[in-house]
Amino acid sequence: MQHADRAHGRAQQPGNPFRCAPCITLSFCLPLSSAVAQTGDPLVCHSSLSLSPNPLPFSFFVTHLFQINPRQTDASETMAVAQVPRNFKLLAELEKGEKGMGAGACSYGLEDPEDILMTHWTGTIWGPPHGHHENRIYELKMECGPNYPKEPPIIHFVSQINLPGVSQTDGRVDPNYVGILRDWTRISAELSRNPRPKEDPLSLEAALIAIRKYMEEHKKLPQPPEGSKYPMYK
């Protein structure tokens, strides 16, 4: 709520393109193309629209909030294509990361708590044991673009690492080397057609865990001195 309060405070400043009602959190603020046409705001709040002189019908919110095709009438078909919007999903991931509810060998959070678009994240991986990664802590940066979670995050190592598929120039992870990143788009498409499993297979945490597993497969490779960082992060 503190984060939402700060966002609301900024929303009230003159000239700010974001509007949010006091009674609603940032998680309900979603880009709605039809709403932009009505209000001129690129990001609007459902409750703000509902208070407008010409309130939009409830079906409008259902259609945009869950990305449901209004032409579909079959209930099972509608449930199959419903997708969790980007902001909802990232807020859930943020809460899980802040509460330390994920895997103990990885952690993650927003790079800037003021990043209301939740684009830039930091991650940490504790090196796998019984190899050259043991007792090392690796820092990473992750970028969730506007099409996340349909598209995978862009991930860079900040800490230097000798690992196939990781650029020795800027630490970028080639998604073709890490299974979940390579198959992300395909899995996302499958999830859009089928009910979601209890545990979300596509998340920042899942990506970090997969990278750590990949590191474990190459734990015998010699590594740069501990604490080394790529030049762009020094």
From TrEMBL:
Q: Which regions span the lipid bilayer?
A: none
* Pfam families assigned to the protein according to its UniProt record, in alphabetical order: UQ_con
**Residue span, UBC core domain:** 85-234
* Keywords on record: Ubl conjugation pathway
Q: Does the keyword Translocase apply?
A: no
- BP-aspect Gene Ontology terms: DNA damage tolerance
The protein here is known as UBC core domain-containing protein
Protein source organism = Sordaria macrospora
